[in-house]
Amino acid sequence: xxxxxxxxxxxxxxxxxxxxxxxxxxxxxxxxxxxxxxxxxxxxxxxxxxxxxxxxxxxxxxxxxxxxxxxxxxxxxxxxxxxxxxxxxxxxxxxxxxxxxxxxxxxxxxxxxxxxxxxxxxxxxxxxxxxxxxxxxxxxxxxxxxxxxxxxxxxxxxxxxxxxxxxxxxxxxxxxxxxxxxxxxxxxxxxxxxxxxxxxxxxxxxxxxxxxxxxxxxxxxxxxxxxxxxxxxxxxxxxxxxxxxxxxxxxxxxxxxxxxxxxxxxxxxxxxxxxxxxxxxxxxxxxxxxxxxxxxxxxxxxxxxxxxxxxxxxxxxxxxxxxxxxxxxxxxxxxxxxxxxxxxxxxxxxxxxxxxxxxxxxxxxxxxxx
Length: 370
Fold this sequence. Notes:
Shape: elongated
Number of strands: 15
Structural class: alpha+beta
Radius of gyration: 30 Å
Number of helices: 9
Largest sheet: 6 strands, mixed
Strand content: 25-35%
Order of helices and strands: HEEEEEEEHEEEHEEHEHHEHHHE
Number of domains: 2
C-alpha cells in the first residue's frame, strides 16, 4: 500500500499541468519609474534613472513562488531639478543624496497585454551613477535589496494593467497554462513603482523658504504657501509615538517567534475544594492518605517535567534566536512600509536594531501544566 501511494504521488507530480521543476528567472533593467508622491517630481528618475531587477518565478509543490531583489539608480550630478506644485528648485547633491528608497514594486510585462508583480522587498541605498553599470557593479551586493519568497494564488499572479487604474487577473487554469508555456520579462513596457523617503528634500525646501534663500525657482503658478504642512516632518517622534512603534515591532516578533523562555515553573491554576459532610474519622483518614499519595505522585511528575523542560531550554532559546534572525528583513520591511513615510528612518532603524538584538520585552517563564 505504501509503494502504491508513493507511485501515485510521483505520477501526479510528473503529469501535473504545473511541474515543480519549472522555473524562470532573469536580470532586467527597468528605466520607467513612477512615484506615488505627486507633490514632488524628480526629473532625474526618468532621465537616466533605472531599476536593476533580479527575479525568479517557479512552481513549488503546485504553487507559484515569486522572489525579486534589485537596485535603484539615479544619475550622479552636482544638483538636481525638483518640481513641487509648479515650482522648480535646484537641490544640491549633498541634500538630494539623503533620500532613501522605501519600497519598489516592478510591474513586469510578460506579454503584449499581461503583467506580473515583482516586489523587491527591503531596499538598500540608492546607487548614484549610470544604470548601465549595474549588472557588473563591483559592490553590487551593497546596494541590492533583500526579500523573502512570496507565494500568491494562481488567480492573483498574472493580470492586465489598465493604465495603473485597475487590473483584471487571469483565472487559475489560464495562469497555469501561461506558466507552463514559459515566462520572460519584456523590459519595453515594464515599469517600477517606487516610494522614497523625500523628507530631506522637503525640509530643505522649507528651510530655504523660511530664510528667504535663493532656491532657484524657475516657474510658479500658485500664491499659496505649500510648506506649512511640512513644518514638523523631520522632527523626532515623541516618546509616546516611539513607544507605540516599539510595541508594534515587539508584537510582530512575538507573533512570529513566540516568547523567549528563561526559566521553568509549575502552572498553578484554580483549585476546587469540597466539603466532606458526614464523613467518619476512618473515612477522613483514608481520604487524607489518598490525597497525600496523589500529592507525592503529582510532585514527582512536576519535578520530572520541570527537569526535562530545563534540559530543553537552551535548545528552545537557540531556535528562538534563529527564528528572530530569519525574520529580520521581513520585520524591517513591515516597519518601513507602515511608518517610513511619517517618521525619520534613523529613529525606526534604532527601534528595529534594539528589538532584533536585545531580549528585553521577550523573556517569559515556561510553565509546566499538570
